[in-house]
Design a protein that fits this description.
2 domains, homotetramer, about 375 residues, Rossmann fold, alpha/beta, elongated, 4-stranded parallel sheet
Amino acid sequence: MENEKIKRIGILTGGGDCPGLNAVIRGVAKPAHDMGLSVLGILDGFEGLVNGKAVELYNKDVSGILATGGTILGSSNKGDPFHWPVEFDGQVKITDKSADALRNYEGWNLDALIAIGGDGTMHIAHQLMQMGMNIIGVPKTIDNDLMATDQTFGHDSAVYVVSEALDRLHTTASAHHRVMVVEVMGRYAGWIALNGGLAGGADIILIPEIPFEWDAIYDKVIERNMMGKRFSIVCVAEGAKPIDGDMVVKATDPKRTDPIQLGGIAELVAKKIEENTKLETRYIVLGHLQRGGSPTPFDRILSTKFGTYAIQLAAKKKFGTMAALKGTNIKSVSIEEAIENQKLVDTSDQAVKTAKSVGVCFGTKKI
Amino acid sequence: MENEKIKRIGILTGGGDCPGLNAVIRGVAKPAHDMGLSVLGILDGFEGLVNGKAVELYNKDVSGILATGGTILGSSNKGDPFHWPVEFDGQVKITDKSADALRNYEGWNLDALIAIGGDGTMHIAHQLMQMGMNIIGVPKTIDNDLMATDQTFGHDSAVYVVSEALDRLHTTASAHHRVMVVEVMGRYAGWIALNGGLAGGADIILIPEIPFEWDAIYDKVIERNMMGKRFSIVCVAEGAKPIDGDMVVKATDPKRTDPIQLGGIAELVAKKIEENTKLETRYIVLGHLQRGGSPTPFDRILSTKFGTYAIQLAAKKKFGTMAALKGTNIKSVSIEEAIENQKLVDTSDQAVKTAKSVGVCFGTKKI
Amino acid sequence: MENEKIKRIGILTGGGDCPGLNAVIRGVAKPAHDMGLSVLGILDGFEGLVNGKAVELYNKDVSGILATGGTILGSSNKGDPFHWPVEFDGQVKITDKSADALRNYEGWNLDALIAIGGDGTMHIAHQLMQMGMNIIGVPKTIDNDLMATDQTFGHDSAVYVVSEALDRLHTTASAHHRVMVVEVMGRYAGWIALNGGLAGGADIILIPEIPFEWDAIYDKVIERNMMGKRFSIVCVAEGAKPIDGDMVVKATDPKRTDPIQLGGIAELVAKKIEENTKLETRYIVLGHLQRGGSPTPFDRILSTKFGTYAIQLAAKKKFGTMAALKGTNIKSVSIEEAIENQKLVDTSDQAVKTAKSVGVCFGTKKI
Amino acid sequence: MENEKIKRIGILTGGGDCPGLNAVIRGVAKPAHDMGLSVLGILDGFEGLVNGKAVELYNKDVSGILATGGTILGSSNKGDPFHWPVEFDGQVKITDKSADALRNYEGWNLDALIAIGGDGTMHIAHQLMQMGMNIIGVPKTIDNDLMATDQTFGHDSAVYVVSEALDRLHTTASAHHRVMVVEVMGRYAGWIALNGGLAGGADIILIPEIPFEWDAIYDKVIERNMMGKRFSIVCVAEGAKPIDGDMVVKATDPKRTDPIQLGGIAELVAKKIEENTKLETRYIVLGHLQRGGSPTPFDRILSTKFGTYAIQLAAKKKFGTMAALKGTNIKSVSIEEAIENQKLVDTSDQAVKTAKSVGVCFGTKKI
């Protein structure tokens, strides 16, 4: 029935935590109820879809959650229905549970599923679409590495945390004539380091897209020191790497087999700077601080816009699409297209040029 | 000499305070010095240009100011060189001091003047251009009411203050079953109220662009009360007005001649809600809290981009232009064009629709 | 049965909002459950006690409320059981409803009632004790005006809000060469103005305990101006008054019968300073911002200590007592004694001397 | 000349960074100038005293620094005049430079030296006193581990940072059903972990004073999980250690010679919890975030009181004493006595009992 209105939608949040998830859920559920739709909250991402865990979401459930961090639905980094780990006799076997997912989708009488998530979530959503589910996407990544949208929600909040940390460390670095190295998120895309570093006045920004030369870093620190600025702040993305080296494997990475040496890139950078400049150097890894807490006003607004737009897309049966920010407006893009294009920092990007203009060193003399 | 490079620029900040001014100044001065330009900081806006008050700006002067509120150059709301009040025998006479401004501009050997300011500043800048000064503009308004740019710096910081205040008032309104009315800036444009209200979860948003009906407000408050939500938050722009009334004249406005009755629109709205719904109602006027303090990371980045872009425009002798945000890029627009088009909230705007979708009442049943 | 253990307690929150109320409730309920006690949450202060409105409080109800503002139990400024307004034929008559309160207390099988509140709440609690109820008090006032305890919870949070506001206003006052007048809470006691002003670097602090002279204020502002400090920050308690004048009656006070002229003391002070010094002056009234929002860590700790101490007092049947901070320890004091002694700022107080030492003017040349 | 007034004082800040240092400096310098004293700011702690680096401090130098982090005088962790490292032929030799320190003290015509610092600083100050210098102390430690004062400045700010971090991590732990381990400062004293953990609602607090048992930790995490609380927050002091183990030696500690294995106690705790409970566990080390940034209002007030009190002690020639908080008053104690008594967390302390009452586990079943 082409013209039949949808009556019931499901909603789930997948992947890592991100400030604004609850604002999206509220943005979906409130107008849905006004349209007469019922809303099913699927718990713990795709895990709930496979295992049939879900709760009805009423207005009272989404009231007062706009400013809260986390997600009332729970999330999970695991749980790909197409690659589902099952334990047999102490051995883990990967099976396909997508049929269970579909059975639940149908059993719950869902007319559409709104999937809020990143890369991984969208890839799974895309496969579920092939099986006949009606999917609307809401892009989620604090990394901001999606070509399809000018900005993703959560990114502004992560940048806020980084910027606030740099502010704090500035005073103490300055009082003690120290180099401070701050590791921020960004395995492949350096947006958090770039924007956080710009906002927090970092002197050196190291990102995965621009492999760095050790000498360029030492020179910058020493040059500042000689100008009487006896402190330097380095903002480094976790995925940054030297031009002649590999990405640092975390000490905690279960895959590593080599003798464990260093916790991460920040520790390595701090160690090398101290050795080569003889200046006292300290490091800090911001880690999950960047994913938690109340979203910034910017993210609350963007999340709310994404949520309300997504439910409209669902009502209009524009399945397979995703809400995206373009300039000052929300538009729709195809999920398929969106997941194909990652947005990385380009050295010709205005943000990079701006940073260069105010004296930021990217660890290379080439740009 | 068309091909001659510029050697010396002036910079001034005009109009009301705005978080990010210092970040712009830093964004201009640091690359200017790298290009070999000297930078003259003109004090207290156009007042300094007329009266010849200025200081050389070196790198050390703009170091560490990225995160600070206010402006190291000082500003002034007065000081239009073309309408300069002079006191003669106890009488104030308006004179034209633009010749003094030009004389100083020339005497200081300026090749260009970067004027950071709002509407008023840009109008004056435009007239000074006619006299032969080379002007580059940087748009400044916490109100965000400029068609030429997707967003102005300072707005995100103002919205942050509003959103944080609404968060605080929510808890106390909820505990005491109260209506809280919060007055925010916005004489003609409602962007701060709209974005701040959206981010802070306001139940009612009143803006100058949408004249409100009293009954619609009372009905919303009562409806919420009947649904068991014994509190409501109203976010009202200072310029909001009832459909059948005039803008409330502030008690402190020197121009008012009538018997003083009320301090502002928030007080009036609070009084009327309490009278008509019998619910305890309180109000607060956020006032200058919205203009002060450290800029948000978003504003620090945007300000820095505007500053570094402006000095490039100057170096390229693109006089008469202004830096503007379009999508994720900074571009240049003509000052003339920019000052002609104010950006007001339109009822068809996505932000308005989003707000409606999550249940916000705009004080009218028409939209 | 002297030796019989208590089995069931009630808890209520009375009076104005105060950050930390929920932390106290949690601090009472968690250990109570561990002791095997049941906890009844009485709603909306004494109103719930008279009208029989209450809910059972389980651990899940107090989980996650440590950091939240407001009170999950609701509160009410009205509701003195001994002076209860009842409407007969459009006329309000004051009646005694204490018998209803007692009947509910007994009907609910309460062994003790923990009353969290200020002055008013403690006076009522004291009278209810005479009727046979077992009361434990927890002192609550953001004003910090209680002799019996070194500090009350909520005060640190209020001071935080004031200090943050002064920080913001400093930058904008400084940029625009302005005087900024900030009105804070404190009708009879000036602690918020004193501590907030000290923390926020106010130049002038006006409190109820030290009637001020207008000339002393003008002189301070002018003296600063002549020293090149072209801005001044005034922090004024709502109850501050000139030495030769009355407390300013709020425009919104229903009791006032005179022609309404000014909104409050801040407006008056701002007006007079501008008239007498010719310096641009602005004012802001912080109002309920001081009562809302998440408590500071200091207040969360103090509230939790007060709560856990109160339930121990109840378990030990030390009825008629109240938790109080003395140095670094919580001790018990008698409610009766506590309500008799208000703690006002004394001119010989160290905080006053400290403020004087760093140049703060109290609006008088006498101290 | 017993009755001669002092005319000139020196001031220095020693040891690690601590929010409030600048507020103390301002609190000393402003009243000093009012008394007609001149103030010499000695740079980089005792290094400046030995090497003769100092600047005159005028009122303009201490204006506007109340709210800033760091110290305008610089500090240094090195620089004990009695154990001064000098390099001869590539070898470091320890020499005694106290004669240089005394020569500078006398050459600068100082009547007294105000030393702001912790343990180490006070020990050195005490030795300098024996040589004839007039010393007044101001105790500084974010660790709060000084018996002589109810609280030290900087501690409240450190607790604020910890509490805010726990708030952020709560939401993300809760959304993802994770255990989060947060390492905070405190090598010997657990006050930051205890107070920060209490304020941030930690489920488990591990401190140096209470050696922990692994099983008690696992049991608590599992117990919470079985009650449906699928996340836990662990707040661990850097000096916490298992009952049967040594303090974890940091990977970066130059003294360690064993094969490097783990970064710190948080990493170890996280690893063991994940292994033993099979629950996803993450950790973060807050590090220098706890030392930087603007002091909280509480610390600004306490610092200002300490500063103004110290200059009074100097004026009264009460040399060898230190400002200390006792209840709500500042009093003086002898430096000698103060440095002898460290204040550690005692299991009978009210804060510990309070934490136990609200369900906090200290990693042992013994208390």
